[in-house]
Write a sequence for this structure.
């Protein structure tokens, strides 16, 4: 029996907008991915966000984890974290995604511009909105 794979995801909110990436399943995704063997989850998330978007972030609070059925019968454990931008917000999209969008928080929903936003990501975004930024994640 193999362990359920882990994917760290960043909820990056900047100027009342959240960063979404369009994946190959035609769904909105949060930046992130799988940690390398022995890699700290926060370090992995900083690396993945930089690789996928070209953005630098600080990693804040851990949000509630979810078991996500990516494909029928294929599950991934999603470990989301609240993130804050360090520097500019211009995304340099990697080959891993088809598109990007800084979505105004007032437009959050299960479907955005004709693409599904999985419920576990929507819940993580809502949780990040409700959580104050932890002092350890503040950028001065």
């Amino acid at each position: 029996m193999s362990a359920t794979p882990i994917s760290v995801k960043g909820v990056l909110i900047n100027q009342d907008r959240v960063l979404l990436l369009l994946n190959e399943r035609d769904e909105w995704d949060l930046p992130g991915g799988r940690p390398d063997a022995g890699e700290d989850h926060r370090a992995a998330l900083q690396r993945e966000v930089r690789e996928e978007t070209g953005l630098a972030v600080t990693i804040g609070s851990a949000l509630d984890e979810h078991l996500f059925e990516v494909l029928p019968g294929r599950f991934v454990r999603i470990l989301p974290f609240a993130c804050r931008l360090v520097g500019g917000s211009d995304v340099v999209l990697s080959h891993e995604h088809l598109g990007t969008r800084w979505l105004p928080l007032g437009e959050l929903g299960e479907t955005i511009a004709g693409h599904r936003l999985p419920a576990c990501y929507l819940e993580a975004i809502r949780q990040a909105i409700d959580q104050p930024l932890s002092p350890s994640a503040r950028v001065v």
User: Anything to note?
Assistant: Residues 108 and 126 are 9 Å apart (CA to CA).
